[in-house]
Amino acid sequence: MIIAIDGPAASGKGTLAKRLAEHLGFHCLDTGLLYRAVARDVARRGFRLDDLWAAVATARSLDPAELEDADLRGTAAGDAASIVARIAEVRAALLAYQRDFSRQEPGSVLDGRDIGTVVCPDADVKIFVTASPEVRAKRRFAEFEARGMGVAYETVLADIIARDARDAGRPNAPMAVAPDALLLDTTNLSIEAAFDAAVGLIKRKIGHPGR
Ligand code: DC
Description:
This protein is of the alpha/beta class. It has a single domain (2-206), classed as P-loop containing nucleotide triphosphate hydrolases (Rossmann fold, 3-Layer(aba) Sandwich), CATH 3.40.50. 53% of the residues lie in helices and 11% in strands. The protein binds 2'-deoxycytidine-5'-monophosphate. The site of 2'-deoxycytidine-5'-monophosphate has 15 residues, from helix 2, helix 4 and helix 8.
C-alpha cells in the first residue's frame, strides 16, 4: 500500500508522514531530502545550483544512504533544493529510486510535492496538507527561536511565500493537488490533531488505518 503526502514547506507533512509510517509499520521517505542532498553536493563540488550539467550529474550519482546529515534540515538547504528541483533531468534522475522505494512491503509513506501527481499517481491514498503561509511561518519562526537563531518573522514569511511560488510555478512536476487527493488543512490543528484527522481520512478511503 502506498500513501502519498504532498504539501508546501512547513505544512507539517513531514511530521505527519513519519507518524503515519510508524503507526502503520510502513517505510517512510522524505523525498525533499533527495533534492536537498543534490543541492548540497552541487555546492560542495563548487558549482552553481542552476548549473544544469553539474546538477544532473550529481543527481545521477546521488547515494540515497547519505541523507542523514543534520545540515540538510535547515532553511538554506530547503531553498537550495527548490532551485535544483526545477531541473527536469534532476527530477528524472531521482524518480526510479522514489518509485522503487514506494513499492516496498508492507507499505510506504512518501512525502514531497509531486508524489500524488508524478511519483506515485496510483497511490492508494493521497493527502495534500496545507496551512496558511502565516501559520507556517509562525511554526518555522518558533523552531528558529527555540534553536536560538535570530531571524525576523517577516523574513521567514517572505521565504515561505517565495518557496511556494517557485515550487508551484515551475513547469516540471510543480507542487499541485492531485485530482483524487484528500485535503488536510492544518492551520488550526496541533500535530496530534492533524495525525488523528489523517488517520480518519485514510480509514474512510481504505477502511483500515492501523496494523
Ligand atoms: O519538503 P522539503 O521542504 O524538504 O523540500 C525541499 C525542496 O525540494 C522543495 O522546496 C522543492 C523540492 N522538492 C520537490 O521539488 N519535489 C519533492 N517531491 C520534494 C521536494
